[in-house]
Structures
1.
Amino acid sequence: MFNPENGFTSDVIKSPDRFVGRTNLVMSCLRVLNSEHSLIVIYGKRGVGKSSLLRQIQQIATGDFTLPKKMSLQYLISEKQRKYLTVYYQCDSLIDGCDELLLRLVNDQDGEDGLLRLVPDDGKELVEFSRAKSVNAGADLKIVKWGTQGVETSRYARTVPGDVVQTFRNFLNSIITHQLNKYGKDGILILIDEFDVIKNKHGIGSLIKSLTSDKIKFAICGIADDVSSLVEDHHSVERLLEEGSMPVLQMPHSECLQILNRAEELFDNEIKFVGEAKEKISQLSSGYPYLVQLFGKACIHELNKYGKSEVDEFVLNAVLNAIKKGEAFPSLETKYQRAIGNSEQRQLLLHLLSEEEDNREQQDLEMGLVYLKNVRKEAVGLEIENMDQIIPRLVDKKYGPVLSKIRKGVYEFVDPVFRIYVNLREL
Ligand SMILES: Nc1ncnc2c1ncn2[C@@H]1O[C@H](COP(=O)(O)OP(=O)(O)O)[C@@H](O)[C@H]1O
Ligand SMILES: [Mg+2]
């Protein structure tokens, strides 16, 4: 029996071992980390690999160059490559704005990622640890014991009641004063993931600008098609962004194949994907590494079922059949069931909409958009009567949401991976 998780994962990738491709972005990242006064903004579609890239940046920032070395990018690592203490925070939709975000940051007690762990405090014990399993030069700090009085930072950093911006500044300054030298670091890198879910982003850009210095750098990451839709007041950060804007696009075919190659290695070459199976999986995944990983896992499950060690046409077909019946990818199937409810009409329309996209020609121009006018005729043909009543359901959060409205008559699949899944699923 093979454990699918040995080679595949649907989690964010923290280990450089499992991370493939994205060489250009890693190159930019090495440069940006080494430049003063710059901001990193990672954006792209859902499931495309943003958070995994962000975690790799965090790793590199600590001074662990396993990944760039593996990519033969040693020549880009300068002798004085800056190293950072890092803070990582994942936003959620309860954060309504700038103040709430800072409040979360200054209160985050996460032992490996939280800001509070770095603020000096009597009795607090920090140890160095490597974010990758491999032991490397670059280490970050992990808390093993909080201060004697619990979280008590007042001696080094003053908490200013009612002024979270100043408190945040004080915390950062105390880290700069007391920790950077001690641990041989040049600055603090604050990584903020799922930035897109913050309701009101007003003012965050200018705050980031005012805080960014040769010692403090931010990296923000979220779903967006461009920087300006991620950072509302992007004008204030434009100059900081000259190098740090990092669009994460769908993976090229060759990199999807690499995920499968890497998985074979991670299984110690005890399993094998035949060439055609790799090609097919990569092609069906449309550049979404998430899908490659799900396909990979599902293939291993089938291998176990048949006691085989080679993913060939037979195994892949078994997987495709399971997907058709909704049995292979449980998380996507749950979404599917929620979207269609018990309505056959909604199910029909969902399939129609997801196919419509594939038939479009101007794909590059307006990726992922669905034009109702193109669907309407077919819908009538299939006897979907009340299309205009079903669409609002698909936009409703309660059922997904599956679609978001772009403008009148034009919608977008909120999750492109889900759209692909619907196409693979049988009616
Ligand atoms: N560079 C990569 N190499 C291999 N797998 C990746 C890579 N980037 C992402 N993945 C896989 O894709 C999935 C989605 O990645 P994630 O970083 O969570 O995307 P996003 O944050 O854009 O939604 C995860 O299952 C992850 O394992
Ligand atoms: Mg993410």
Note: The first strand starts at residue 40 and ends at 44.
2.
Amino acid sequence: MSTSIFGRTILCLGAAASFSFVSPVHGAGDVERGALASRACMACHSFSAGRHLTGPSLAGVWGRRAGSAADFSRYSDALKRSELVWNAQTLDAWLRNPAAVVPGNTMLFDGISQAGTRADLLAYLQAVSEGRVSPPDRRHPNLKLADASRQVAAVRYCGDAYRVVTADGKTSQWWEFNLRFKTDGSADGPSAGKPVIVGTGMQGDRAAIVFSRPEEWSAFIRRECP
Ligand code: HEC
């Protein structure tokens, strides 16, 4: 960004003068670089409102009290009790070393040592929160729309294997250790009683059957040999 040198000077002076107890903000970050850097967060966070993954949605995080995203139920007590409010200083410190800022938090992330990358991420987080950029919509495919080859009609267990019959009449076999059973109760999850099989492994030797609710598991999985 062409204006960043000027912005950087101003911010550094301001930061050094007023925030001696936390790491100073080293400059105005670049939103586009921040968007690229945010890929490091996407395994666990979405930037779309209300879409929680392992971690809470980061839409609207700027100015929010820590541990307060609506409908995210898995915050650690440590983060909820921290009484932090997310702003340039607290977010910079958190992204540098989350464990140091809130001991006992459950974000498994080592931190980012480069101040410039943190500044870029902050610029992006602020821009997303203020609605100036639209985050990528990284929704999982809606499992209610799965085609017949992925709709599970029956699961049979024999020896060390599961045989999975799909709605197109085909049967696939899986070593028991490589087939996972998951649930997705979100709007994108399967309909009740209509589990869906999804491939997970690079080599096609692993899969997961996603149910709407765990209560469906035992009704579906029958012990039966061919
Ligand atoms: C391995 C998963 C994981 C990764 C990667 C990750 N986070 Fe997190 N993040 C979490 C979890 C889980 C929490 C909730 C922590 C808690 O409750 O203690 C969290 C919490 C947060 C919070 C506090 C949100 C709130 O509502 O108070 C922020 C801000 C945050 N993460 C930013 C980021 C950013 C930015 C990145 C990428 C640079 C990132 N995280 C990478 C899992 C992750």
Note: The pocket of heme C is lined by residues 40-41, 43-45, 54-56, 58, 61, 66-67, 69, 75-76, 78-79, 86, 91, 94-95, 105-109, 121 (CB under 6 Å).
